[in-house]
Amino acid sequence: MKMQYLQFILLLALQAGASGATAANTNLASDTKATTKTQNLIRNMHTLAKKGTMIGHQDALSYGIGWYDNSNRCDVKDVCGSYPAVMGWDLGHLELGSSVNLDSVSFATMRKNIIRGYEAGAINTISWHARNPLTGSDAWDISSNQVVTSILPGGQKNTLYNQWLDRVADFMTNLKGKNGELIPVVFRPYHELSGSWFWWGKKLCTKEDFVALWRYTIDYLRGKGAHNMLVAYCLADFYSEAEFLDRYPGDGYVDVVGFDIYHRENDPKGTIFSADLKMKSDIAQKVAKDRNKLFAITEAGYEAIPDSSWFTQVLAPGVRGRNISYVLLWRNAFNKKGHFYAPYPGHSSAADFVKLTRDRAFFTCRNLKKMYK
Length: 373
Ligand code: BMA
Known about the structure:
The protein is an alpha/beta fold. The chain has helices spanning about 1-20, 35-50, 75-80, 105-120, 145-150, 160-170, 205-225, 240-245, 270-290, 310-320, 350-360, and strands spanning about 55-60, 65, 65-70, 85-90, 125, 185-190, 230-235, 255-265, 295-300, 325-330, 360-365. It is globular and about 55 Å long. The N and C termini lie far apart (about 45 Å). It binds beta-D-mannopyranose. Beta-D-mannopyranose binds near residues 90, 102 and 129.
Protein backbone atom coordinates (compact mmCIF):
# COMPACT_ATOMS: atom_id res chain seq x y z
CA MET A 1 0.00 0.00 0.00
CA LYS A 2 2.73 2.42 1.05
CA MET A 3 4.75 1.57 -2.04
CA GLN A 4 1.78 2.28 -4.31
CA TYR A 5 1.34 5.64 -2.64
CA LEU A 6 4.99 6.57 -3.22
CA GLN A 7 4.75 5.49 -6.85
CA PHE A 8 1.68 7.64 -7.23
CA ILE A 9 3.49 10.70 -5.81
CA LEU A 10 6.45 10.03 -8.10
CA LEU A 11 4.16 9.80 -11.10
CA LEU A 12 2.50 13.11 -10.22
CA ALA A 13 5.88 14.79 -9.87
CA LEU A 14 7.02 13.45 -13.23
CA GLN A 15 3.85 14.62 -14.92
CA ALA A 16 4.21 18.09 -13.41
CA GLY A 17 7.78 18.24 -14.71
CA ALA A 18 6.77 17.11 -18.19
CA SER A 19 3.99 19.64 -18.53
CA GLY A 20 6.13 22.42 -17.14
CA ALA A 21 3.69 22.93 -14.29
CA THR A 22 6.33 23.63 -11.67
CA ALA A 23 6.15 26.56 -9.31
CA ALA A 24 8.81 28.46 -11.29
CA ASN A 25 6.76 28.18 -14.45
CA THR A 26 3.46 29.42 -13.09
CA ASN A 27 1.56 31.48 -15.62
CA LEU A 28 1.68 35.12 -14.51
CA ALA A 29 -0.55 36.27 -17.37
CA SER A 30 -4.19 37.10 -16.66
CA ASP A 31 -5.19 34.92 -19.61
CA THR A 32 -5.15 31.31 -18.41
CA LYS A 33 -4.65 30.28 -22.04
CA ALA A 34 -1.88 32.80 -22.81
CA THR A 35 0.61 31.44 -25.36
CA THR A 36 3.96 30.27 -24.03
CA LYS A 37 5.71 33.32 -25.49
CA THR A 38 3.18 35.61 -23.82
CA GLN A 39 3.78 33.87 -20.50
CA ASN A 40 7.52 34.16 -21.05
CA LEU A 41 7.18 37.85 -21.83
CA ILE A 42 5.29 38.71 -18.67
CA ARG A 43 7.65 36.65 -16.53
CA ASN A 44 10.65 38.44 -18.04
CA MET A 45 8.96 41.81 -17.68
CA HIS A 46 8.44 41.14 -13.97
CA THR A 47 12.11 40.21 -13.56
CA LEU A 48 13.32 43.24 -15.49
CA ALA A 49 11.06 45.67 -13.63
CA LYS A 50 13.04 44.89 -10.46
CA LYS A 51 16.19 46.16 -12.18
CA GLY A 52 14.97 49.19 -14.06
CA THR A 53 12.60 50.76 -16.54
CA MET A 54 12.23 50.27 -20.27
CA ILE A 55 11.98 53.36 -22.44
CA GLY A 56 9.21 53.29 -25.01
CA HIS A 57 7.99 55.48 -27.84
CA GLN A 58 4.62 55.67 -29.59
CA ASP A 59 4.71 55.05 -33.37
CA ALA A 60 8.48 54.61 -33.10
CA LEU A 61 8.91 53.19 -36.61
CA SER A 62 5.93 54.81 -38.36
CA TYR A 63 7.13 58.38 -38.65
CA GLY A 64 9.13 61.07 -36.88
CA ILE A 65 10.15 64.66 -37.20
CA GLY A 66 10.66 65.34 -40.91
CA TRP A 67 9.91 61.81 -42.14
CA TYR A 68 7.03 59.42 -42.66
CA ASP A 69 6.81 55.71 -43.45
CA ASN A 70 10.48 55.06 -44.09
CA SER A 71 11.51 51.56 -43.10
CA ASN A 72 15.02 52.67 -42.21
CA ARG A 73 14.13 55.28 -39.67
CA CYS A 74 13.31 55.69 -36.02
CA ASP A 75 13.90 58.99 -34.16
CA VAL A 76 14.95 57.27 -30.94
CA LYS A 77 17.45 55.07 -32.79
CA ASP A 78 18.79 58.04 -34.73
CA VAL A 79 19.48 59.77 -31.42
CA CYS A 80 20.82 56.95 -29.23
CA GLY A 81 21.72 54.12 -31.62
CA SER A 82 19.06 51.71 -30.40
CA TYR A 83 15.36 51.14 -30.92
CA PRO A 84 13.24 51.94 -27.88
CA ALA A 85 12.57 48.89 -25.71
CA VAL A 86 8.83 49.37 -26.07
CA MET A 87 7.01 50.44 -29.20
CA GLY A 88 3.47 51.80 -29.06
CA TRP A 89 0.82 51.58 -31.81
CA ASP A 90 -2.81 52.60 -32.10
CA LEU A 91 -5.69 50.76 -33.73
CA GLY A 92 -8.05 53.76 -34.04
CA HIS A 93 -10.09 53.41 -37.29
CA LEU A 94 -9.26 49.72 -37.73
CA GLU A 95 -12.79 49.15 -36.44
CA LEU A 96 -14.16 50.96 -39.50
CA GLY A 97 -12.32 48.66 -41.87
CA SER A 98 -10.06 51.59 -42.81
CA SER A 99 -6.61 50.83 -44.21
CA VAL A 100 -4.95 53.65 -42.22
CA ASN A 101 -5.29 54.64 -38.57
CA LEU A 102 -6.35 57.98 -37.12
CA ASP A 103 -2.79 59.27 -37.35
CA SER A 104 -2.30 58.21 -41.00
CA VAL A 105 -0.40 55.00 -40.25
CA SER A 106 -1.26 52.19 -42.63
CA PHE A 107 -2.30 49.03 -40.78
CA ALA A 108 -0.27 46.91 -43.19
CA THR A 109 2.86 48.92 -42.32
CA MET A 110 1.97 48.87 -38.63
CA ARG A 111 1.78 45.10 -38.75
CA LYS A 112 5.17 44.89 -40.46
CA ASN A 113 6.66 47.26 -37.89
CA ILE A 114 5.25 45.28 -34.97
CA ILE A 115 6.95 42.23 -36.45
CA ARG A 116 10.15 44.26 -36.91
CA GLY A 117 10.03 45.37 -33.30
CA TYR A 118 9.43 41.82 -32.10
CA GLU A 119 12.24 40.37 -34.24
CA ALA A 120 14.55 43.05 -32.81
CA GLY A 121 13.61 41.90 -29.30
CA ALA A 122 11.44 44.89 -28.35
CA ILE A 123 7.95 44.85 -26.81
CA ASN A 124 4.84 46.10 -28.59
CA THR A 125 1.93 47.82 -26.91
CA ILE A 126 -1.32 48.65 -28.68
CA SER A 127 -3.87 51.28 -27.71
CA TRP A 128 -7.22 51.86 -29.38
CA HIS A 129 -8.77 55.29 -29.94
CA ALA A 130 -11.99 53.63 -31.15
CA ARG A 131 -14.55 55.92 -32.74
CA ASN A 132 -17.86 56.53 -31.06
CA PRO A 133 -19.98 53.55 -32.12
CA LEU A 134 -23.29 55.23 -31.31
CA THR A 135 -22.83 58.65 -32.94
CA GLY A 136 -20.27 57.69 -35.58
CA SER A 137 -17.99 60.52 -34.51
CA ASP A 138 -14.50 60.22 -33.00
CA ALA A 139 -13.27 58.82 -29.66
CA TRP A 140 -13.52 62.30 -28.10
CA ASP A 141 -17.25 62.62 -28.81
CA ILE A 142 -18.80 62.74 -25.34
CA SER A 143 -22.22 64.00 -26.41
CA SER A 144 -23.99 60.86 -25.18
CA ASN A 145 -23.74 58.81 -22.01
CA GLN A 146 -25.50 55.87 -23.65
CA VAL A 147 -22.62 54.67 -25.80
CA VAL A 148 -21.31 51.91 -23.55
CA THR A 149 -24.78 50.45 -22.88
CA SER A 150 -25.52 50.60 -26.60
CA ILE A 151 -22.68 48.23 -27.48
CA LEU A 152 -23.15 45.72 -24.68
CA PRO A 153 -25.34 42.65 -25.35
CA GLY A 154 -28.93 43.74 -25.83
CA GLY A 155 -27.88 47.22 -27.01
CA GLN A 156 -28.70 48.57 -30.47
CA LYS A 157 -25.01 48.73 -31.48
CA ASN A 158 -23.93 45.35 -30.14
CA THR A 159 -23.78 43.77 -33.59
CA LEU A 160 -21.69 46.66 -34.85
CA TYR A 161 -19.36 46.37 -31.86
CA ASN A 162 -18.92 42.65 -32.46
CA GLN A 163 -17.89 43.47 -36.01
CA TRP A 164 -15.35 45.96 -34.65
CA LEU A 165 -14.01 43.34 -32.28
CA ASP A 166 -13.76 40.83 -35.13
CA ARG A 167 -11.46 43.28 -36.89
CA VAL A 168 -9.34 43.80 -33.78
CA ALA A 169 -9.15 40.03 -33.22
CA ASP A 170 -8.15 39.56 -36.82
CA PHE A 171 -5.32 42.07 -36.43
CA MET A 172 -4.09 40.50 -33.17
CA THR A 173 -4.14 36.95 -34.48
CA ASN A 174 -2.28 37.92 -37.64
CA LEU A 175 0.75 39.23 -35.78
CA LYS A 176 3.10 36.35 -36.38
CA GLY A 177 6.82 35.74 -36.16
CA LYS A 178 9.04 33.78 -38.57
CA ASN A 179 7.87 30.42 -37.33
CA GLY A 180 4.21 31.29 -37.43
CA GLU A 181 4.09 31.95 -33.67
CA LEU A 182 1.74 34.63 -32.35
CA ILE A 183 3.59 37.79 -31.32
CA PRO A 184 2.76 38.82 -27.75
CA VAL A 185 1.55 42.39 -27.28
CA VAL A 186 0.37 44.58 -24.41
CA PHE A 187 -3.16 45.65 -25.35
CA ARG A 188 -4.30 48.92 -23.76
CA PRO A 189 -7.95 49.50 -24.52
CA TYR A 190 -10.16 52.19 -23.00
CA HIS A 191 -7.25 54.18 -21.66
CA GLU A 192 -7.44 57.22 -19.37
CA LEU A 193 -10.70 55.76 -18.10
CA SER A 194 -10.77 58.00 -15.03
CA GLY A 195 -11.04 61.06 -17.26
CA SER A 196 -14.21 62.12 -19.07
CA TRP A 197 -12.91 63.10 -22.49
CA PHE A 198 -13.46 59.78 -24.30
CA TRP A 199 -16.88 58.14 -24.76
CA TRP A 200 -15.87 55.39 -22.28
CA GLY A 201 -14.80 57.92 -19.61
CA LYS A 202 -15.88 58.09 -16.01
CA LYS A 203 -18.83 60.44 -16.36
CA LEU A 204 -20.01 58.77 -19.55
CA CYS A 205 -20.88 55.32 -18.17
CA THR A 206 -21.55 53.58 -14.88
CA LYS A 207 -18.87 51.57 -13.17
CA GLU A 208 -20.84 48.36 -13.79
CA ASP A 209 -21.17 49.08 -17.50
CA PHE A 210 -17.49 49.97 -17.81
CA VAL A 211 -16.41 46.72 -16.16
CA ALA A 212 -18.88 44.80 -18.33
CA LEU A 213 -17.48 46.49 -21.46
CA TRP A 214 -13.93 45.63 -20.48
CA ARG A 215 -14.66 42.00 -19.73
CA TYR A 216 -16.84 41.59 -22.79
CA THR A 217 -14.09 43.02 -25.00
CA ILE A 218 -11.29 40.91 -23.59
CA ASP A 219 -13.39 37.72 -23.45
CA TYR A 220 -14.47 38.26 -27.05
CA LEU A 221 -10.91 38.70 -28.31
CA ARG A 222 -9.66 35.72 -26.32
CA GLY A 223 -12.57 33.73 -27.68
CA LYS A 224 -11.29 34.51 -31.19
CA GLY A 225 -7.89 33.11 -30.29
CA ALA A 226 -6.02 36.27 -29.27
CA HIS A 227 -4.11 34.55 -26.50
CA ASN A 228 -1.10 36.75 -27.27
CA MET A 229 -2.39 39.70 -25.25
CA LEU A 230 -1.29 41.07 -21.93
CA VAL A 231 -3.79 43.72 -20.91
CA ALA A 232 -3.05 47.21 -19.54
CA TYR A 233 -5.49 49.08 -17.27
CA CYS A 234 -4.56 52.72 -17.38
CA LEU A 235 -6.02 55.80 -15.76
CA ALA A 236 -5.48 59.52 -16.09
CA ASP A 237 -6.23 61.41 -12.87
CA PHE A 238 -6.86 59.72 -9.50
CA TYR A 239 -6.04 60.57 -5.91
CA SER A 240 -6.48 57.37 -3.91
CA GLU A 241 -6.15 53.63 -4.18
CA ALA A 242 -9.94 53.30 -3.96
CA GLU A 243 -10.32 55.61 -6.92
CA PHE A 244 -7.62 53.74 -8.82
CA LEU A 245 -9.45 50.45 -8.32
CA ASP A 246 -12.97 51.81 -8.72
CA ARG A 247 -13.43 50.46 -12.24
CA TYR A 248 -10.85 47.67 -12.05
CA PRO A 249 -12.24 44.75 -14.06
CA GLY A 250 -10.52 42.01 -12.05
CA ASP A 251 -7.19 40.20 -11.93
CA GLY A 252 -8.25 37.88 -14.72
CA TYR A 253 -8.45 40.85 -17.10
CA VAL A 254 -5.40 42.93 -16.28
CA ASP A 255 -1.63 42.42 -16.44
CA VAL A 256 -0.30 45.97 -16.30
CA VAL A 257 -1.63 48.81 -14.16
CA GLY A 258 -0.63 52.41 -14.66
CA PHE A 259 -1.49 55.85 -15.83
CA ASP A 260 -0.85 58.47 -18.50
CA ILE A 261 0.86 61.61 -17.29
CA TYR A 262 2.14 64.72 -19.02
CA HIS A 263 4.35 67.59 -17.96
CA ARG A 264 2.34 70.70 -18.86
CA GLU A 265 3.70 73.97 -20.18
CA ASN A 266 2.62 76.07 -17.18
CA ASP A 267 5.11 74.18 -15.03
CA PRO A 268 8.60 75.07 -16.32
CA LYS A 269 10.50 73.61 -13.35
CA GLY A 270 8.38 70.48 -13.27
CA THR A 271 7.30 70.98 -9.66
CA ILE A 272 3.66 70.12 -10.38
CA PHE A 273 4.58 67.23 -12.68
CA SER A 274 7.01 65.67 -10.19
CA ALA A 275 4.58 65.89 -7.29
CA ASP A 276 1.80 64.40 -9.43
CA LEU A 277 4.09 61.61 -10.65
CA LYS A 278 5.05 60.77 -7.07
CA MET A 279 1.48 60.77 -5.76
CA LYS A 280 0.22 58.58 -8.59
CA SER A 281 3.22 56.24 -8.53
CA ASP A 282 2.82 55.63 -4.79
CA ILE A 283 -0.69 54.37 -5.49
CA ALA A 284 -0.03 52.41 -8.69
CA GLN A 285 3.10 50.80 -7.26
CA LYS A 286 1.16 49.54 -4.25
CA VAL A 287 -1.71 48.19 -6.37
CA ALA A 288 0.75 46.41 -8.66
CA LYS A 289 2.63 44.88 -5.75
CA ASP A 290 -0.50 43.73 -3.90
CA ARG A 291 -1.86 42.00 -7.02
CA ASN A 292 1.41 40.85 -8.57
CA LYS A 293 0.80 42.98 -11.67
CA LEU A 294 3.24 45.10 -13.63
CA PHE A 295 3.30 48.86 -13.14
CA ALA A 296 3.91 51.04 -16.20
CA ILE A 297 3.62 54.68 -17.15
CA THR A 298 1.59 53.99 -20.23
CA GLU A 299 1.96 57.46 -21.79
CA ALA A 300 4.20 60.32 -20.76
CA GLY A 301 6.12 63.29 -21.94
CA TYR A 302 6.66 67.03 -22.14
CA GLU A 303 5.40 68.34 -25.46
CA ALA A 304 8.27 69.66 -27.63
CA ILE A 305 10.65 69.00 -24.66
CA PRO A 306 11.40 72.66 -23.88
CA ASP A 307 13.71 71.63 -21.00
CA SER A 308 16.95 70.23 -22.46
CA SER A 309 17.70 68.16 -19.35
CA TRP A 310 14.15 66.93 -18.79
CA PHE A 311 14.94 63.24 -19.23
CA THR A 312 17.66 62.98 -16.60
CA GLN A 313 16.56 65.78 -14.26
CA VAL A 314 12.77 65.49 -14.21
CA LEU A 315 11.65 62.13 -15.60
CA ALA A 316 14.41 59.87 -14.26
CA PRO A 317 14.23 60.95 -10.60
CA GLY A 318 10.47 60.34 -10.59
CA VAL A 319 10.70 56.92 -12.17
CA ARG A 320 13.83 55.46 -10.60
CA GLY A 321 13.61 52.78 -7.91
CA ARG A 322 9.89 52.11 -8.21
CA ASN A 323 9.86 48.85 -10.20
CA ILE A 324 8.24 50.62 -13.13
CA SER A 325 8.25 48.27 -16.10
CA TYR A 326 8.20 50.91 -18.80
CA VAL A 327 7.53 54.53 -19.66
CA LEU A 328 6.01 55.12 -23.08
CA LEU A 329 6.85 58.54 -24.51
CA TRP A 330 4.10 59.80 -26.75
CA ARG A 331 4.43 60.24 -30.51
CA ASN A 332 6.65 62.46 -32.65
CA ALA A 333 3.94 63.69 -35.03
CA PHE A 334 5.14 64.33 -38.55
CA ASN A 335 2.11 66.46 -39.38
CA LYS A 336 1.34 68.42 -36.23
CA LYS A 337 3.99 71.03 -35.56
CA GLY A 338 5.59 70.91 -32.12
CA HIS A 339 3.71 67.72 -31.14
CA PHE A 340 6.61 65.45 -30.16
CA TYR A 341 7.82 63.79 -26.96
CA ALA A 342 11.06 62.00 -27.85
CA PRO A 343 14.11 63.80 -29.19
CA TYR A 344 15.25 63.63 -32.80
CA PRO A 345 18.77 64.33 -34.09
CA GLY A 346 19.66 67.96 -33.50
CA HIS A 347 17.04 68.60 -30.81
CA SER A 348 18.32 70.34 -27.67
CA SER A 349 17.35 67.38 -25.43
CA ALA A 350 19.12 64.74 -27.56
CA ALA A 351 22.33 64.60 -25.48
CA ASP A 352 20.35 64.33 -22.26
CA PHE A 353 18.24 61.51 -23.69
CA VAL A 354 21.43 59.64 -24.64
CA LYS A 355 22.58 60.08 -21.05
CA LEU A 356 19.33 58.54 -19.82
CA THR A 357 19.78 55.53 -22.09
CA ARG A 358 23.25 54.99 -20.60
CA ASP A 359 21.90 55.02 -17.06
CA ARG A 360 21.89 51.44 -15.75
CA ALA A 361 18.33 51.79 -14.51
CA PHE A 362 16.90 52.53 -17.96
CA PHE A 363 16.69 50.21 -20.92
CA THR A 364 16.43 50.55 -24.67
CA CYS A 365 16.04 47.62 -27.03
CA ARG A 366 19.76 46.81 -27.01
CA ASN A 367 19.60 46.09 -23.28
CA LEU A 368 16.83 43.51 -23.58
CA LYS A 369 17.78 39.88 -23.59
CA LYS A 370 15.40 37.32 -24.93
CA MET A 371 12.16 38.68 -23.52
CA TYR A 372 10.16 35.92 -25.23
CA LYS A 373 12.21 32.91 -24.09
C1 BMA B 1 -3.33 62.30 -29.00
C2 BMA B 1 -2.67 63.22 -30.01
C3 BMA B 1 -3.47 63.15 -31.28
C4 BMA B 1 -3.59 61.70 -31.75
C5 BMA B 1 -4.11 60.81 -30.66
C6 BMA B 1 -4.10 59.34 -31.04
O1 BMA B 1 -2.68 62.33 -27.78
O2 BMA B 1 -1.34 62.80 -30.25
O3 BMA B 1 -2.83 63.93 -32.27
O4 BMA B 1 -4.44 61.61 -32.88
O5 BMA B 1 -3.32 60.97 -29.51
O6 BMA B 1 -2.82 58.88 -31.32
